Amino acid sequence: MPTRVLVVGGGGREHALAWKLAAEPGVNEVWVAPGSVGIAREPRVRIAADVDPLDGPSVVALTRARAIELAVIGPEAPLAAGVGDALREAGVATFGPSAAATRIESSKAFCREVAEAAGVRMARGAALDRPEDALAFARELDVTGAGVVVKADGLAAGKGVTVCASLAEAEAAIMALGLAARGAGDGRSDPIVVEERLDGREASVIAITDGRDVLALPAVRDHKRLGDGDAGPNTGGMGGYSPLPDLSDDATEAILETVHRPLLAELGRRGTPFRGALFAGLMLTTSGPVLLECNARFGDPETQVALPRLGVALGPLLLAAARGELLPAARSLGLRGSLLPATRGASVGIVLAAAGYPARARGGELIRGIDAAEDQGALVFHAGTTATADGGWATRPGRVLTVVGRGQDLGAARLAAEAAATAITWDGLQRRHDIAAALPVPEAVG
After folding, report:
1. 199-332 has which CATH code?
2. Cα distance between residue 15 and residue 342, in whole Å
3. Which residues neighbour 106 within 8 Å (Cβ) at sequence distance 6 or greater?
4. What superfamily does domain 346-422 belong to in CATH?
5. CB count, 10 Å around CB of 283?
6. Is the separation of the CB atoms in 90 and 60 below 8 Å?
7. What pLDDT is stored for residue 159 in this prediction?
8. pLDDT of residue 224
9. What is the 3-state secondary structure of 90-152?
10. In the chain, which residues fall in CATH 3.40.50.20?
11. Which pLDDT belongs to residue 167?
12. Which residues of 346-365 are buried (b: 16+ CB within 10 A; e: fewer)?
């Protein structure tokens, strides 16, 4: 067990990681950079507010000053900026892939290329350099009756995907991406990814890996759209639940064999081994799971939902993965198979977002009811809060809090999450009321 851990980032995912790690036996301190005042409320958690999470030398200096034994990188931006590389070069055990391996997330075109080479099934699609070619392919998909999904190639904080209800909407999304590329004025021409729309239910399967072996967290279903009934624009995620009635342990093991392991093997073959959290966003279709996208880190809000169900210490596994020793560590902990043990209960997370999110989010609204929600037994993870002079809380633009309810089953967990989320208010608060409301009937996933 590492005794001093650094978590890079400052959102709800990083709060959940700090909460989990700081409560594990043997951990003396968890530093979070830059963290937040809300995260600093956790016992044995300290924040380094003056550290730029995108600046490798600054992060390395913190690890040396605090004798950090393990660095865990939360968001995608520091990974793409090479902060993980800088830490490893400084001799710090680091959970998080290199910038080269992070391309599996930072470029959707690269993800499609790797998946094709690895034999991993994705939706029919293409990465096209010119908007006119993207328009032509979207029209081709529309003629066949397949819906269209348009994706920005690079990082977009979970909001770079447009699931189009019509060809006109697809054309508008493609033209908007083309205009944005021209407006950047830097001479770059990022591809536009156009794919067929798939029918089914989404699932997030996140695996801890050292580049060879994998251990999966409890699967989570995230809800990306802003409003109830999957209405409104895509967001970074408005809530999720675990376990999934329609994804058995055997089916999850099969996903690890047909998605995660082939992707890792292909990345290794290219000379970019992946050590960190390999996130597979999947669509569970009637003909089996299909890969939608990969992320190179723990998800948000999936982490806030999955970690409360985890039935094993996380710190030793992250350290072992960083060192390339995941399998021996798992066996020393008595773990068998590729699924991390989970509690019998369930968890449901509801994201509370600021007014105007995602397009024109604004902050500065006074938050009421956090203490009341916690008094009900809910976990409240801070993503975008600031402390006020009188000891209260105010919103920052974006997603503000994730409220997690737990129970013996999904129904009980949902009731707990709904009650706790309802206790929290501010002017312009946005949230969904249907997370885990309509649960799928368990069925076999091919």
Report:
1. 3.30.470.20
2. 20
3. 76, 79, 80, 154, 155, 296
4. Phosphoribosylglycinamide synthetase, C-terminal domain (3.90.600.10)
5. 18
6. yes
7. 55
8. 92
9. CCCCEECCCCCCCHHHHCHHHHHHHHHHHCCCECCEEEECCHHHHHHHHHHHHHCCCCEEEEE
10. 4-96
11. 85
12. bbbbbbbbbbebbeebebeb
Which residue numbers in the chain have pLDDT < 70?
Answer: 155-159, 180-189, 441-446
Residue 181, pLDDT score: 56
Write down the residue that tokens 């409320």 correspond to: 41
Structure tokens at 375: 């008094």
d(Cα 206, Cα 218) in Å, to the nearest integer? 8
Phi-psi region of 111 (alpha: psi -120 to 50; beta: other; left: phi over 0): alpha
Spatial CA neighbour of 357 closest among 432, 434, 302: 432
Residue owning tokens 């993800």: 111
Nearest alpha-carbon partner for 151 in 166, 165, 162: 162
Structure tokens that stand for 73 in this block: 């990188």
Domain 126-196 of CATH type 3.40.50.720? no
Task: Map tokens 């019998």 to a residue.
Answer: 344
Q: Which two tokens stand for residue 86?
A: 């800088």
Cα(85)–Cα(272) distance, rounded to whole angstroms? Answer: 12
Residues of the chain with CATH 3.30.1490.20: 126-196
Site of tokens 């995608």 = 76
Contact predicate 78/58, CB 8 Å: no
Classify domain 4-96 by CATH architecture.
Answer: 3-Layer(aba) Sandwich (3.40)
Q: How far apart are CA 211 and CA 321, in angstroms?
A: 8
